[in-house]
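Input.
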Amino acid sequence: MKILVLNYSVGNIYSISHALSRLGASVSVEKEISSREFDGLVMPGVGSFTSASEAISSYRGLLRDVILSGTPTLGICLGMQILFNSSDEGPGSGLDIFGGRVVSLPPTVKRPQMGWNRLLKTRYSPLLEGVEDAWVYFNHSYYPEPTDRSIVAAKTEYGVDIPSVISHRNIFGTQFHPEKSSKAGRQILQNFINQVRR
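Output.
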């Protein structure tokens, strides 16, 4: 079993790779997708929507095909946002896996949201097996507003209800950073590894 961590010119590559490796996964870090010789895909993210959109432009079609073909995929923070259509953060196209736009946190709250906040499950997702009443670590100023709210598996209250976990078939996303979220984060990453192993 091999998990590919996509390094598309964003930060936090080492942290997520190390966290997955510690849980027993075989991890490969690649700057683009040139083949399908992997079993799971992780798209991390600390950076801007525009730079991420530019970085994936040369293999955007293949990346979409991999995700839509059923490969277990986990998008983290910006990596989740890039699954949507577009962003108020700047120009550039997302992967259009899900309908919806990435919008800014409201001006009534401190931006970015940086630190721990509560995860409120709204429906079942295999990504959240064994995760109850959890606090997880956020660092973001933008969040997605899905057209189809049924893909939201957990929310977090921060001025507005933020979709903090999305889950649809083989595709998962977290607006928070599981690799920085202690016990709950480790469980979420283990659950993703379990989906890859199926």
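Residues 6 and 32 are 7 Å apart (CA to CA).
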